[in-house]
Amino acid sequence: MRRLTATPRPDWREKIESVGLVFSASTKPDGTQVEYWHESAYYEFSMDEVERLELVAEDMHRMCLEAARFLGTGAMGDLGIGPQARELAVASLEAADPDVYGRFDFAYDGHGDAKLFEYNADTPTGLIEASLAQWYWLQDVMPEKDQWNGIHEALIEQWKRYRSRTGMSRLHLAHAGNEDSGEDWMTTAYMRDVAEQAGWATVGINMADIGWNHGYQRFVDLDDYPISTLFKLYPWEQMVREPFGQYLLARELNPAWVEPAWKMLLSNKALLAALWHLYPGHPNLLPAYLDSPRDLEAWVAKPLHGREGDNIRIHAPGIELEQPGDYGREGWCYQAYQQLPDFDGNHPVLGLWVVNGESVGCGIRESDGPVTDFYCRFVPNTIDAPAPAVGATAS
Predict the structure, then answer these.
(1) Do residues 364 and 379 make contact, with C-beta atoms less than 8 angstroms apart?
(2) How far apart are CA 78 and CA 311, in angstroms?
(3) What pLDDT shows up at residue 393?
(4) What gap in Å lies between CA 133 and CA 148, rounded to an integer?
(5) Among 163, 175, 343, 385, which residue carries the largest CB count within 10 Å?
(6) Which among 259, 355, 354, 393 is positioned nearest to 57, based on CA atoms?
(7) Alpha carbon of 116 to those of 32, 198, 227, 364: distances in Å?
(8) Which 3 state secondary structure label does DSSP give 227?
(9) Could you state, in order of their start, the residue ranges of all structural domains in the chain?
(10) How far is CA 353 from the centre of its chain?
(11) Could you give the angle at the alpha carbon of 14 between the alpha carbons of 9 and 18, nearest 5°?
């Protein structure tokens, strides 16, 4: 794995916006504007690295399912979601409710073992840049190369499998914001596109516009049409706390959710402690515990429901850091501190995407400091190997 420099395309902004990456620029609290999309550099993998890391991601997904079953027993508490929500998640896991996608975050520098930071299994973002934007960058800049990226094709195939398995054909897709919310809206729009390519008839809706019809005893859309299958870019732990959350607890009254309720167990940071409990010393895991750091000399405290690095606390040699945010009341997981790789002051995290439990691609975000937060950069990747033959899919 190497970080190499590249010359940005003159019309790069128009190119990324044309595929839906319209949320590249953001402004820090001090007024500094930062660009999320960064094509002045790229990371290059060897094919051997890709194949090894694919196995790591797939093994980790299987291990996480075992850890979710352990969390479902209540052995590590109510996970900040309460016993009824935990029971709902367990019932969903036992029923093997189908899922679509997820993203692991790993530290990896090209040497040694990749180390798991977390599993974004319920509402993973970073999808458009990993699936589309970096693929079109590759075709424009170095089409002779391959890329670790089969995400788009894998999503279409999974939505086809989902339709075949459930017999459903109408899919509602919802997010929490509006068109101005950028990433959530565009990620949901992209998921709608791949679902339509898989043969679904789709309906877009805001989460706030989903209603409950007492006569039907069903969730309904704005036309009072019952919702049978719903993709939602909205966290389960928030849904179960809201006024309509009481209706979620009766599985027989619910639509088929994507992602399903069992993802509550995988997206919770308690998963990290459960993994270490079940697989102590595993080369791809970092020691992790609930409630206290125990014997860890350097650690990162992560709120169980935290996102985007909010409220993370780092205690390590030369580092005492606490991020702002609104999380933490639900409880904490303490994970051994793992220094991010350093490529000339750039600190990458690998986002390894899985679809139907299979590794399908990689998106890389890098930061200037020890936390990969909202103001990080997305940097494309290549594989040091020839591009696949015409008609083949990049892996």
Answers:
(1) yes
(2) 20
(3) 46
(4) 13
(5) 175
(6) 354
(7) 31, 32, 36, 14
(8) coil
(9) 2-285+349-386
(10) 8
(11) 120
Nearest CA-CA partner of 83 in 93, 95, 94, 71? 71
Within its chain, how far is the Cα of 152 from the centroid?
A: 15
CA 313 to centroid of chain Cα atoms: 21
Closest CA to 53 of 130, 124, 1: 1
Distance CA 131, CA 128 (A): 5
370 token code pair: 């020890």
248 vs 21: CA distance, rounded Å:
33
Alpha helices in 232-355 (DSSP H): 236-239, 245-248, 263-267, 270-278
Interatomic CA distance for residues 349 and 125, integer angstroms: 14
Tokens representing 189 are 């729009």
Four-CA torsion 111, 275, 66, 253, nearest 10 degrees: -120
Bridge partners of 26? 34
Q: Which amino acid is at 337?
A: Y
Judge whether 131 and 361 are in contact, CB under 8 Å: yes
User: How far is residue 284's CA from residue 117's CA, in Å, rounded to a whole number?
Assistant: 10
User: Exposed/middle/buried for 203, CB within 10 Å: 0-12, 13-18, 19+?
Assistant: middle
- Coil, helix or strand for 202? strand
The strand pair at 170-175 and 229-233 is best described as: parallel
Q: What is the tally of helices (H) and strands (E) in the chain?
A: 11, 22
Work out whether strand 25-27 and strand 299-303 pair parallel, antiparallel, or are unpaired. unpaired
Distance, in Å, from the CA atom of 383 to the CA atom of 395, rounded to the nearest integer, reads 10
Each residue's pLDDT tens digit in the chain (395 positions)?
A: 999 999 999 999 999 999 999 888 777 777 778 899 999 999 999 999 999 999 999 999 999 999 999 999 999 999 999 999 999 999 999 999 999 999 999 999 999 999 999 999 999 999 999 999 999 999 999 999 999 999 999 999 999 999 999 999 999 999 886 544 588 889 999 999 999 999 999 999 999 999 999 998 999 999 999 999 999 999 999 999 998 888 998 888 789 999 999 999 999 999 999 999 999 999 999 999 998 999 999 999 999 998 877 889 999 998 898 888 888 789 999 999 999 999 999 999 999 999 999 999 999 999 988 777 777 899 999 999 776 654 444 43
DSSP category for residue 207:
G
Residue 28: both structure tokens together: 């820090």
**Sign for the pseudo-dihedral over CA of 139, 143, 148, 149:** positive
